[in-house]
Amino acid sequence: MNTTVSCELHLRLIxxxxxxLPVPAGLRYDTADPYAVHATFHTGADETxxxxxxxxxxxxxxxxxxxxxxxxxxxxxVTDKESSASP
Length: 87
Known about the structure:
By secondary structure, the protein is mainly beta. It contains one helix and four strands, in the order ββββα.
């Protein structure tokens, strides 16, 4: 029997030091895929962007790097599920 755990989050996308945008999101963990966490970012009325994170990567990010996540090598890339594979 598989178990699924999910939660809804209210995140903020930091655009610059002066502005940010609200991004509602949902996280889902399913024991059928025990090493992954699925994230759904709600980007518009009926639009979503789905990402899959390694469970260990997400845990390390939560424990090892508190605060906002910033890009080291340049601006973050944004992709959608129709135009490319999972980031």
